[in-house]
UniProtKB/TrEMBL annotation:
<dbReference type="Pfam" id="PF08541">
    <property type="entry name" value="ACP_syn_III_C"/>
</dbReference>
<feature type="domain" description="Beta-ketoacyl-[acyl-carrier-protein] synthase III C-terminal">
    <location>
        <begin position="243"/>
        <end position="330"/>
    </location>
</feature>
<dbReference type="InterPro" id="IPR016039">
    <property type="entry name" value="Thiolase-like"/>
</dbReference>
<dbReference type="InterPro" id="IPR013751">
    <property type="entry name" value="ACP_syn_III_N"/>
</dbReference>
<dbReference type="GO" id="GO:0004315">
    <property type="term" value="F:3-oxoacyl-[acyl-carrier-protein] synthase activity"/>
</dbReference>
<dbReference type="GO" id="GO:0044550">
    <property type="term" value="P:secondary metabolite biosynthetic process"/>
</dbReference>
<dbReference type="Pfam" id="PF08545">
    <property type="entry name" value="ACP_syn_III"/>
</dbReference>
<keyword id="KW-0012">Acyltransferase</keyword>
<keyword id="KW-0808">Transferase</keyword>
<feature type="domain" description="Beta-ketoacyl-[acyl-carrier-protein] synthase III N-terminal">
    <location>
        <begin position="104"/>
        <end position="185"/>
    </location>
</feature>
<dbReference type="InterPro" id="IPR013747">
    <property type="entry name" value="ACP_syn_III_C"/>
</dbReference>
<protein>
    <submittedName>
        <fullName>3-oxoacyl-ACP synthase</fullName>
    </submittedName>
</protein>
<dbReference type="GO" id="GO:0006633">
    <property type="term" value="P:fatty acid biosynthetic process"/>
</dbReference>
Length: 335
């Protein structure tokens, strides 16, 4: 049985509260809490980068398994890393002592964790030499936001953290079931960092105009096109992941989504017939690129929200735009 055998998270100590964000953005604290769904988020110190956050989470998992038993290390976290052209996966492989493993990266911004879990399962199923895959992710995306830019308002919940998951061939804690993924590339130019790439290379102008921060060139245009399809696509991938797993939607007990505004979170739950206590909403962590669903799964286990036999879905979406969901069956036996 191929499943997620362990998860871990790393939370930076520094907290930025709704009050802090209100001062920084000019948005009332009540709006940040009630509409953004955010009481606080974590911010990493200057000396910790995406790779360090991922490694810190990975080390916690390796307390329970020999690092040399890991066959593959996959970095699935934020594309905003320590350096622009560089592999965090190689650094993680070395610093975690997983010297028998090869390493590579998956990059699909916020949608990546459900996809990475599917890829890890498929790799183990297709290659008899692979028994344990360590997924690691880091996010320092709080640094990508220009709070003076109202076009990037929906990204003000971006935060920092690290997480990891161990996918094993003979898992006892859970079984990875089916997945569903939708991509609509018509949104590929709607959210981006304008400067620093080959279109607008790094220059004095890029820095002076703050083109090295995330931006939404046409917020109204994106909203008009995205709103009609976003919740239907979330609903579709969740339902398809469950149905392809050979169970009914009524069997779905828990949802682990990315952190979104509160209204979207509620619509997502309503679309699949769940209540708010059947999901983990990261009110005290914010949005950490692809890390959110792994955080949710870890916190659900830690807080005793999962029972033996429960069907759960990890689900996320990333700008570009891709919606992805993977179903798991939970058993909860010790690592």
């Amino acid at each position: 049985m191929i499943g997620i055998q362990a998860t871990s998270i790393y939370e930076p100590e520094l907290k930025e509260t709704a009050v802090d964000l209100a001062v920084k953005t000019g948005i009332p604290e009540q709006v940040i809490v009630e509409k953004f769904g955010l009481y606080e988020k974590r911010i990493a110190p200057d000396h910790l980068h995406a790779s360090d956050l991922a490694i810190a989470a990975g080390k916690k998992i390796l307390r329970h398994i020999d690092p040399k038993a890991i066959d593959v290390v996959i970095y699935f976290g934020s594309p905003y890393k320590d350096y622009p052209i560089w592999t965090a996966s190689s650094k993680a492989q070395y610093e975690l002592g997983t010297t028998s493993a090869y390493a590579f990266e998956m990059m699909n911004v916020s949608s990546c964790f459900p996809i990475a879990v599917k890829v890890a399962k498929d790799m183990i199923r297709s290659d008899e030499s692979v028994n344990h895959i360590l997924l690691v992710g880091g996010s320092k995306e709080s640094m990508t936001i220009n709070y003076e830019n109202p076009r990037s308002r929906f990204m003000f919940n971006f935060a920092d953290g690290g997480t990891a998951a161990l996918v094993s061939r003979n898992a006892t804690k859970s079984e990875i079931l089916a997945s569903s993924i939708i991509t609509d590339g018509s949104f590929s130019g709607d959210v981006l960092v304008p400067g620093g790439g080959s279109v607008q290379p790094v220059s004095t102008e890029v820095v002076e105009k703050k083109l090295h921060f995330l931006d939404v060139p046409d917020p109204l245009g994106m909203k008009e096109r995205l709103d009609p399809v976003s919740i239907p696509n979330f609903t579709r991938v969740i339902k398809q992941a469950v149905e392809r797993s050979g169970v009914r939607l009524d069997d779905l007990k828990m949802l682990f989504p990315l952190h979104t505004k509160k209204s979207m979170f509620r619509e997502m739950l309503e679309g699949v017939g769940l209540k708010e206590d059947q999901a983990v909403y990261l009110t005290h962590h914010g949005h950490m690129s692809a890390l959110d669903p792994c955080y949710g799964l870890h916190l659900a286990e830690r807080n005793g929200l999962l029972k033996n036999g429960d069907i759960a879905v990890i689900v996320s979406a990333g700008t570009g735009y891709t919606w992805a969901a993977t179903a798991i069956r939970w058993f909860g036996m010790a690592v």
